[in-house]
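Last lecture ended with a question: if I hand you only a sequence, what can you say about the shape of the protein? Today we answer it with a concrete record. The protein is Adenylate cyclase. Below, first the input exactly as provided, then the predicted structure, then a couple of comments.
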Amino acid sequence: MFPEDLSARLLKSIGVGVCLAEAGTRRILYANPTFLGWFPDAASGTDLCEAVGGLDPVRLETDRPFELRTKVKRRTLVIETQLRKAEHDGRPLLVIECQNVSRLRETEAMIDSYAAMVDRRTRDLEREKTHVEKLLLNIMPRSVYEEYTTFGSVAPRLFEPVSVLMLDFVGFTEMAAAADPTVTVGELNDIFTAFDRIGELCGCERIKTIGDCYMAVAGLPHPHPDHALAAARCAVKMMRYLDRRNTTHQHQWRARIGIASGSVVGSVVGIQKYVYDVFGPAVNRAARLQQISDPMEITICGSLMGELIDTFDISPPRTEDLRGFGEVSVATLSERRPAASAIAS
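The predicted structure:
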């Protein structure tokens, strides 16, 4: 029925399934061994659509490749199928060429799965990196964090001049012992979060908290020409925040603040459990000034009076004996209130 060279070519289609069928009746005229291996029911004379599962008359009209699935020895094979129309001795024919692409599809699926896994792990790493960055930025300034991540260490640096703000709450130990710890810690967290925002607005960098003690520095890590003014504004806003908060909350949080200017050394301390910290006379002096302050009072060293007296109300200077510093001139700073004449007008 077919020319010998055509039959020979069909028989030599190693690895490729070939089937010929009448275009009108879809009756199979020939199927090579490979095609029969994939579709055992495709004997001569049978209907092509009945012999090949998943093949319907609509697909016979397309000239685009499509995929069929068949089971051979319990294994599902993916067969890429191409249909084209031909003619022999005036008879319209359908030529079906098939190729087993199962391994190719399995490889593609593995690649897609691996790519999805890599993408998922990349997103996980990015989330973890962001989380670690947030944690580190909570304990060190951004410039210090960038130096640490770039070089793996932070060289100690001298910052001069800066102003150190030291805040401590009055009666916190008794409050913590008497109240629900969850409530106490929750309120302390709210207050410190507000302090962080105030410090950011005023140009102060929070360095650390130790229990109920809060320390911030103005002029670090970047120089600030008005560091004393920034620290004083920050302290006043913190006291104002506590005053307003105490009017609406059961627990009364009352603080003492000390502000001192001078030089400090900043560096990352520790290897496994590291923390950024600052050291120096200004830190110790601010701590001593905080200790001698009355509740809801801000105490500054006398050397800052000239810089701040035009902006804040400052008490006459007095002399205090500070441990480690001896006799030191200090003053009390408070928010400047409008004059009575200005209010009346």
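Comments.
1. Residues 313 and 340 are 14 Å apart (CA to CA).
2. Confidence is low (pLDDT under 50) at residues 340-345.
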